[in-house]
Amino acid sequence: EEQLVESGGGLVQPGESLRLSCSASGMSVSDYAMSWVRQAPGKEFEWVSSIGTDGDTSYADSALGRFTISQDNAKNMVYLQLNSLKPEDTAMYYCAAGAGTWRSCLSSEYNYWGQGTQVTVSS
User: Fold this and answer.
1) Residues 7-17: tens digit of each pLDDT
2) Contact 35, 49 (CB under 8 A)
3) Strand 3-7 relative to strand 91-98: parallel, antiparallel, unpaired?
4) 40, 42, 109, 117: most buried, per Cβ within 10 A?
């Protein structure tokens, strides 16, 4: 069974960092463009970052310069390093895999979608 499982979320103070992990099973992250999408309370889904099968990366303006996406094909993992976190980064963060899907916030456009990990930034 194909599955994406996120971890690494938590409660942090503004300015702190977190590293989110996405573990894939039943499929290979190297075969898909991998993305992170988030949903803040009461708001719509927001695309955060993508990494293509060629290693190219892309970031939403809100993430540029603070977040870094990476993947380890040998471990079948994708990561999102979150630095200089702000209260407005508070959201559920989802990992998604798409064959040709890039920079989308729509779950219907992805082949696989995880259950999410909660990030809360508060003093």
Assistant:
1) 999 999 999 99
2) yes
3) unpaired
4) 117
Tell me the residue type at 122.
S
Beta bridge partners of 12: 121
Per the structure block, which two tokens stand in for 81?
Answer: 């390093």
Nearest to 110 by CA among 21, 45, 20: 45
Which of 101, 104, 114 minimizes the C-alpha distance to 31? 101
Residue 122 has pLDDT above 90, yes or no: yes
User: What CA–CA distance (Å, rounded) separates 52 from 101?
Assistant: 9
> Each residue of 4-51: pLDDT tens digit?
999 999 999 999 999 999 999 999 999 999 999 999 999 999 999 999
For residue 5, what are the contacts with CB-CB under 8 A and spacing of at least 6? Answer: 22, 23, 25, 114, 115
